[in-house]
User: Fold this.
Amino acid sequence: MTSAQAADTPLRDLAAAKGKVVGTAVTGSKLTGSYGDIAGAQFGSLTPGNAMKWGSVEPTQGTFNWAEADQIVAFAQAHNQQVRGHTLVWHSQNPSWLTNGTWTSAQLGTLLQNHISTEVGRYQGRITAWDVVNEPFNEDGTYRSTLWYNGLGADYIASALTWARAADPAAKLYINDYNVEGVNAKSTALYNLVKSLKERGVPIDGVGLQAHLILGQVPSTLQQNIQRFADLGVDVAITELDIRMALPADSTKLAQQAADYKAVTAACVAVTRCVNLTVWGFTDSDSWVDSTFPGYGAATLYDANYAPKPAYYGVAEALGGTTTTPPPSTGACTATYSVVNQWNTGFTGQVRIACSGASLSSWKAVWTYGAGQQITQAWNATCTQSGAAVSCVNASYNGSVPEGGSVTFGFNASWSGSNPLPTVTLG
Ligand code: XIL
Assistant:
């Protein structure tokens, strides 16, 4: 493949040409229609968002529910996709029988070993990589106080990795955490752990950087951090990328988000051992962000109606895609000017502001008239004209344009000579 690819080349093909795999977290029940089409066409790897967690697969002790996990693995096989298994050992989303039980250290070790053997064994040969241990660290780099740490000590991590290796020798074994994307106390603790596990001969193949990021806050040391793990001799995956913004989204935020997604992708592309970049849901209609971080959202690559956002093109560009139809520079809200009625000295005009994949809480539409064009009166907006420059701001009641919605305003104006249609931009 050449390095330049058409914009409509699927992300998975762009990634493959760079030696990478681009993936997404998925919800099994949604894998039909547009959601299934995009999941299958654009991504080379799937991660079950919840389906493989202990609380999902063994809600009652000894009673297993593999339905959603099986479905996702089958979908992946049918679409020639890898599966990242997520996750075996965590402090969260465990079944209540486990968290409410009183266990001796020996019992806890047996429960964990059986859990890992059962789940990893079930999917043996079908999982490319397992997030064996999830979120073991506090922000200051100390171990998180969990059922596992408190019951088994820090070596629960080495034990879990060893049991996972025994159950599927081919699966790559990862430790996964958040806020470890840049160089900081937490990522340094993870670094030191991986270094010591390797020195001890404990099986560890990779680290997962979750990358639940905030708009405009891609760590400047991301690539450097990926590189230092690679230099330890392990693979790196961006495992749960999303970039949330304070709602409502607007064109400026969506452009920043595109730049942020592009920067994260570029950092992975720059390091050979960064093997996988997975987004935590690919549509704003299937993201954990909105319910988890009140007031934030619009964190993914596609809007809620499955239209690719500027962020999608940011990822594509970092993977070597050329954007043949660039997203409009004003983002996903556009203004269209039309003349609805015209007579010998005057005319009535209208501007429609429509949003797709974005929304506005206020707006200003500006344009430049030619000689002889002069606004005399406007409705549903306040318009001023200074020389040739026209500026119209929303009325108090129509500043809000929802995603997928539109507003219009109208005006009367005079003209002489000619009455050309100006280009309206949103400011
Ligand atoms: C999230 C899921 O996306 C949600 O649906 C669920 O309610 C909570 O967990 N870090 C992880 C993921 O490792 O498993 C979490 O997934 C998001 C944070």
User: Anything to note?
Assistant: The longest helix spans residues 251-270. The first strand starts at residue 21 and ends at 26. The mean pLDDT is 94. The chain has 13 helices and 18 strands.
